[in-house]
Amino acid sequence: MAERLLDNINSLLDLKKLGVNQLPDLAQEIREVIINTVASSGGHLASSLGAVELIIGVHYCLNAPEDVIIWDVGHQAYAHKILTGRKNNFATLRKTGGLSGFPNKYESEYDVFTTGHGSTSISTALGIAAARDLEQKDYKVVAVIGDASLGGGMALEALNHAGHLHKNMLVILNDNKMSISRSVGALSKYLNRIITAPAYNKIKKDVEGLLLRIPRFGFRAIRSARRLEEGLKNLLVPGMLFEELGFRYFGPIDGNDVATVINTLKNVVNLSSPILLHVVTKKGKGYGFAEKGPEKFHGVSSFNVNTGEKMAIAANMEDEDVKQEKDFTKAFGDKIVEMAKDDKRIVAITAAMPEGTGLDKFANIFPDRFFDVGMAEQHAVGFAAGLARKGLKPLVAIYSTFLQRSYDQIFHDVCLQNLNVVFMLDRSGLVGEDGPTHHGVFDISYIRNFPNIVSMAPRDEEELDDMLSWAMSYDKGPVAIRYPRGASYKYCSSEVSTPKIADKSKAPISLGKGELLKQGKDVTIVSAGYMSNVALEASEFLANEGVDCEVVNARFIKPIDVDLIMGSILKTGKLFTVEEGVIGGGFGSGVLELIIDKVGKHIIIKNIALPDKFIEHGKRALLLDKYGLSSQKIKETIKKVLDSSPAAERLNNMS
Ligand SMILES: Cc1ncc(C[n+]2csc(CCOP(=O)(O)OP(=O)(O)O)c2C)c(N)n1
């Protein structure tokens, strides 16, 4: 096999030894590595392919890690990983123990910030620029942000502040006109106008041509061109939004032409003010299937490179488009459509994730009652509050991890007003390969703290249907429903035994009422929702060891069915709570708060939950097992507690 340029690139110094004319070939080689790796490991393909030349250009012109580069979301930064010393273990991307799918400050000094959530980069970069100036240093600070992420509230707040502080920093707007689906919103239209305005583009080309012809004098050329440019822009560009905010705007340039990227960067990187460089790239660039269907290849599980076909539904992508026959997301998407046909007051809101949340079907059938607010979770909740205030029935579908953005809006705009907003928290629990930025493990705690809100978790798709019907007809305040990614049958074991779903006929949903899944006399296991399938399986393992468990599905995380739980504890004297959420302030804590003054002193209690730490990425089943939430591990924990408890003997004899 012929030697590749990439074979000799082991550091950024090696990159800089190449001539600009060699870089298109390098870009091609990097693309091949990304495509082949993601085809096997799953990952964020289309965004990463689109950003290859931009990343090469940035590293060619800057001096990382001294110069600081912050990647917004970070899903586009695979080429950055490959160029900054991680080429040889890139094949481990997203795998258990392997490279993270996002920038990770613990993985490399070139990843200045651990990221995964959108719209944060400009704030971080501005903070770093301010720190640099206070310390009288002179490195460069760059934020690279996508067009959809730029529409997030935090990014707009940061632009506002940056223009005011007037720090030297460069914001590179990587505009591919796409979020996961097409970008939405007025800002996106505005950017599109800039790109497509023919008269303005012609002038831009002339200005660029001028700069490119005299690169060594580019700095001066820009200055002299600027006055002319500014006058023309005032005339021709509607708004001049960025300039009005205090940025000097350059672009749009072709971000997939590495020479253009480098020539432009060389000129703008030394200017002293906040600069916004508008770079236009093609999402999915260089891989036909991804260019044609960028939304399908935004986040993918493993696929066949030659056909573009999915190989498996294995990877736990945040936004992977493959729907299984029956899973929580699909159950929700189908059910809400069915309900909305009969109830015209139902409206649905997504924050840039119609497909991922299952709302795409609703969007197609009820376009007027569907709102994609863009990557703006805070606004999504405030907007829902307004709709609810006027008597509509808004449903907000946002992944557990991204709804964290809306903590104050849940408090102030919804719970405090006691409005009938229904929150659908998909991807609750461990999501797997996307890792700590994406695990939805805090929602039990952050939701149940607020007065007025009801919080529930279904144990399977059928129960999700029932809960959704109940929630939409409940008119006494907000409701949150949490459920994991995928199908309920998958959430039963650590792949060590046959999946088991409780098949007991279900009682109708009733506020604060749980259900008894299995009667027993030795031990009470309580969880809410899908984890009760795992608990049930653990109870079978325990039965083999002579421990007879009573298993309760509380259904409601708030209000908790204290009567049902107390009734069981009084019988067994031993309580184990199980939840796929962080231990602090979780479901188990909620149970303890309620029973603490009701139980006698001879009781064994153990909360089984995720530890107080950020959980790494990896295969979900392995993580569950590692952190004690597989049915086997739950069994082992219960057995250990029973065996080691001095009170056990007494308790067993108590009745
Ligand atoms: C706060 C937040 N909301 C939602 C997401 C899910 N998400 C990941 S990438 C993405 C689209 C990003 O679009 P853009 O910024 O334009 O970058 P591109 O992928 O097009 O390069 C979304 C919605 C997220 N990571 N963070």
Strand content: 5-15%
Q: Give start-end ranges of low-pLDDT stretches.
A: 318-323, 493-499, 649-655
Helix content: 40-55%
- CATH-defined superfamily of the largest domain: Thiamin diphosphate (ThDP)-binding fold, Pyr/PP domains
Major β-sheet strand ordering: 7-6-8-9-11-10-15
Mean pLDDT: 90
Report the CATH architecture of the largest domain: 3-Layer(aba) Sandwich
Number of strands: 17
What are the defining features of this structure?
single chain; 655 residues; alpha/beta; Rossmann fold; seven-stranded mixed beta sheet; five-stranded parallel beta sheet; binds thiamine diphosphate
Structure characterization notes:
With 655 residues, the chain is α/β, with parallel strands linked by helices. The chain folds into three domains: 5-197 and 237-280, 3-Layer(aba) Sandwich (Rossmann fold); 328-488, 3-Layer(aba) Sandwich (Rossmann fold); 498-652, Rossmann fold (3-Layer(aba) Sandwich). Helix content is 42%, strand content 13%. The strands form three sheets. Strands 7-6-8-9-11-10-15 form a seven-stranded mixed β-sheet, sandwiched between helices. A five-stranded parallel β-sheet has the order 1-2-3-5-4, sandwiched between helices. The chain has a five-stranded mixed β-sheet with strand order 12-14-13-16-17, with helices on both faces. Strand 16 (574-582), helix 25 and strand 17 form a beta-alpha-beta unit. Helix 6 runs parallel beside helix 8 (153-165) and helix 10 (198-213) runs antiparallel to helix 11 (218-236). The longest helix is centred in the N-terminal third of the chain and has 19 residues, at 23-41. The radius of gyration is 27 Å and the shape is globular. The model is unreliable at 318-323, 493-499 and 649-655 (pLDDT under 50). Bound molecules: thiamine diphosphate (TPP).
